[in-house]
Write a structure and sequence with these properties.
This protein has 61 residues and is mostly helical. It has a domain at 22-60. The chain is 64% helix and 0% strand.
């Protein structure tokens, strides 16, 4: 039986995983989603407000 190499130690899983945990990803995603949602609501309000102001200005002229 021919073995081209030998391990000195048996492989093992790392003690601590690299990268952010699932909780951090979920929290950041929720915060970003909330900011995008608030931005959308403010944008819709601004568009409706401008439209109403334009209609009032046209009515006065």
């Amino acid at each position: 039986n021919f073995t081209p190499f030998k391990y000195q130690l048996s492989p093992s899983l790392p003690v601590k995983k690299d990268g952010p945990g699932k909780a951090i990803i979920v929290i950041l995603s929720a915060m970003i989603g909330g900011m995008v949602a608030c931005g959308g609501v403010l944008l819709r309000y601004a568009m409706a407000s401008r439209k109403q102001d334009a209609m009032i200005a046209d009515h006065l002229v």
